[in-house]
Amino acid sequence: MAQVRIEAPAKINVHLEVRGRRPDGFHDLESVFLETAFGDSLLITEEGPEHSCEISMHWEPPPQAGELKDNIIAGAVNCFRKRTFYRKGLRIAVEKRIPVGSGMGGSSSDAASTLVALNALSLSCLAETDLLEMAAELGSDVPFFIRGGAALVRGRGEILESLPLPSGLKVILVNPLLPSSSAEAFKLLDRKREGGMELPRGNGPSGPAEWAALLEGPPGKWPFRNDFLPLFLEEETPCRYAEILGDLKEGGAEFTGLSGSGSTCFGIYSDGAEAKRVSVFLMKRWSFVKLTFFLANNGLEVVRLS
């Protein structure tokens, strides 16, 4: 009975610019993704009848009623089977730590981790290009997690250019445990723009080298933004973004932001001791607070247990 374990890291967007709508209905994006050491964990075992797949999830924190959607892990298994004709029965146990609708790519990371783990478990030896192709079929953010680390992400998420990972920084993640719908966020953005609302714009970096130079600079001077944040602050959503960001800034964060289309806010710290002190304080005010750091671009690691 073969068995592997793999960690599925969360990401944050330190920059997210939403451009025009594409003919396929998606929006063109320009974003900077950074992978964190916090995330889910998957244990995959070859067990059961051929073509079977039993998925069990332990949620921490538990999802709210009505949050769960079609399981992208099952989609990743089916995609891998079609590409490789891998038929073994599978039992997948998932420790879900990334909240649903948090803007940290939990489902996408789970899907990418499933593809990488199955590639190792089945001894298929698929190339990274094959994994990236399957990942793009599953969702916009999934390809990033195949490589991980830091990346400039363009298109609808399928165009990846690696960036140097900022070193020595700590990250505090704060989530109000209220899910944010990406679909509704994009609809709101489109309505506001059609109504004449001007979002912050500027002449951003022209290529990866300029983005890399900014990212390697001190977080206090990062010029990054998230196009969704001013909309949410104007709408006064129940996620209380202004309060969370205010707490992080008062706690000395050198850079604060919103990840994805919400609902996770984050603060960046150079001083690890200060970040730990602030995270302990924030735990008294918010239900979900995690202190973490950025992961190097080493790809997803599969641990074979048997």
Describe, in short, the structure shown.
With 306 residues, the chain is α+β, with helices and mostly antiparallel strands. The chain has helices at residues 72-84, 106-121, 128-138, 142-147, 182-194, 208-215, 229-235, 241-250, 272-282; strands spanning 3-21, 27-46, 53-59, 90-96, 150-155, 159-162, 170-175, 255-258, 265-269, 288-293, 302-304.
Fold topology:
Layout: E1 3-21, E2 27-46, E3 53-59, H1 72-84, E4 90-96, H2 106-121, H3 128-138, H4 142-147, E5 150-155, E6 159-162, E7 170-175, H5 182-194, H6 208-215, H7 229-235, H8 241-250, E8 255-258, E9 265-269, H9 272-282, E10 288-293, E11 302-304
Description:
- It is globular and about 55 Å long.
- Strands 1, 2, 3, 4, 5, 6 and 11 form a seven-stranded mixed β-sheet that branches.
- A hairpin with a 3-residue loop joins strand 5 (150-155) and strand 6 (159-162).
- The chain has helices spanning 72-84, 106-121, 128-138, 142-147, 182-194, 208-215, 229-235, 241-250, 272-282; strands at 3-21, 27-46, 53-59, 90-96, 150-155, 159-162, 170-175, 255-258, 265-269, 288-293, 302-304.
- The chain is an alpha+beta fold and 306 residues long.
- The model has no long low-confidence stretch (mean pLDDT 92).
- Helix 1 (72-84) packs across helix 3 and helix 2 packs antiparallel against helix 3 (128-138).
- The chain has two domains: 3-164, Ribosomal Protein S5, domain 2, CATH 3.30.230; 170-293, GHMP kinase, C-terminal domain (Alpha-Beta Plaits), CATH 3.30.70.890.
- The protein is built from nine helices and eleven strands.
